[in-house]
Amino acid sequence: MVRKKPENAYHSQKEVGTLRLLVLGHPGWALSAILLIAFNMRPALTSVAPLLQEIRSSYELSGFWTSVLTTVPVICLGLFGPLAPALARRFGNEAVILFALLGIVAGSTVRSLGVAPLYIGTVLIGASMSFLGILAPVVIKRDFPHKIGRVMGLYVMFISLGAAVSTAATIPIRGMVGGWRFALMTWALPVILAAVVFIPQLFRNMVARPPADRRAASIMGDGVAWQVTGFLALVSSLAYSVFMWGPSMLEGRGLDPASSGALVSISYLAQMVSGLFVPVVAARLRQQSIIAAIVVSLTVVGLLGFIFAPLWSLSLFSITLGLGQGGAFGLAMLLIVLRSGEPHIAVQLSSMAQTIGYIAGGLVGPFAVGIIHNLSGSWNIVAAFYVVIGFCTLVVGLAAGRALTVQPRGATGTYKAS
What we know:
- By secondary structure, the chain is mostly helical.
- It is built from 17 helices and no strands.
- The chain has one domain (about 30-205, about 215-400): Growth Hormone, Chain: A (Up-down Bundle).
């Protein structure tokens, strides 16, 4: 004889299932997943800077190979970018994002195992972050079409939060866990949390995707696309110069590693403020050129302050730098969305801007700064370099801020991303 379950048990199970569906399917869960991803977009990279001298001493790295180490992740952010749209068309945005999160975990573990694994793990981290950086704005445009400015602002704010926390906490963590290798591995833990929270999104958006039209329009010949790409490239070159060399610049002025990390962390905290509000304000404006001029100017002033300002004023210049760089990055990400008329254009522009932008930004930024300082032995020469790059960023930002839209050419069909 089969015993029937009480009717209230079925109701209870149904209520639990409904509650689970409401929670996991709620936009708030999707937003939480995006923000956790944003938080983990920097720590695996920014945690290296406070430990750079220890890593260099442990493996007896030359100045050249130290510059390579600081440049590899930025180059990888661009080098692997073209794979993201193709993988997203084949497996879906969510599957690629989850795979990328696991890639950061693997890379963070591998790079602590030796000299060769140090570079291999760094490449894996850079490639994984490339996928996240390209697809996250596309998901934001798709899932929050009427709240793009606010969500993009939160996204950039959490990126800055992750950078601030990792930069300030890495040295204390090193003391607690017993060395720089375990300190770097520690930053895999929040990535695992992000992956767990993101898993429901994998099933929530598991829908059929139309095949890509191989004759889809190209944006490579569009001037607006190149202006957005150039702005992101130059903004990234200055940002990653600070990520990789900021603590070293301050140590060159006589500060200890902990104090240098704390000052750079203040800059990242300031980035949270401008990273949140600049996209919100800029999204409401018809043109964003004035915003571009303001954030670029603040960035250059902050960088020059790091090198020339009196020691007592470094906190003020750190805040100035953070406000400039947070706003500049937030604006660059927003321009990708604003200049894209349709989601499939957003995929192309995000891929183009971040692929070319990060490769160029890596070469123009941290690699060039490392080589210039290694050859000259002076941060003063680097300051002149920052002024030149800042001027170029201003010119390109004024052009990219105009109220224009990317116009694909040669289209015989379209592709709509999932």
